[in-house]
Design goal:
This protein is mainly β and about 180 residues long. The chain has helices at about 30-35, 165-170, and strands at about 1-5, 10-15, 20, 25, 45-50, 60-65, 70-80, 80-85, 100-105, 110-115, 115-125, 130-135, 145.
Amino acid sequence: MNVTKTALPGVYILEPKVFGDSRGWFMEAWSVAKMKEAGLEYNFVQDNHSYSAQKGILRGIHFQQDPHAQAKLVRCARGAVLDIAVDLRKNSDTYKKWIAVELSADNKKQLLIPRGFGHGFVTLADDVEFLYKTDNPYNAQSDRSIRWNDPVLNIDWGIVQPTVSDKDANAPLLADSDCNFVSI
């Protein structure tokens, strides 16, 4: 597995080795041993799987408050997405900074996002299946969102009029959020 650092400390692009022949392909999507060799130790406890029917569906920016914050390992199993991680840790050197990575069934890239970051994605194709592991279970009382088009974050989603849920359309701006993340 190839592990690439991004501009945001703790956020990594993971590219598994893919073994293929005329029958198809095989890849190891997650290996505790290989991640430990890379200095990355996570105990994932929940797998989630979402489906988006159309191109232009935007989900995010989502996170859970401490002490229920979640690290995530995300990948696209069908179709393609533009995946976003944004640093929400108030005293971090990269506070309010974000990165965008295209994840697709074809490139098989994954994004490892630590606790303290918001996450979202926009679909780049129809019929998208998106998978993610989390290191903390879902906690409804800690579930939070930041508005996807917050002008302070100024995220370039590559789309002007995405399809969003009511929850995401009505999410607070970062300035009005009760986000409680701080850098350690």
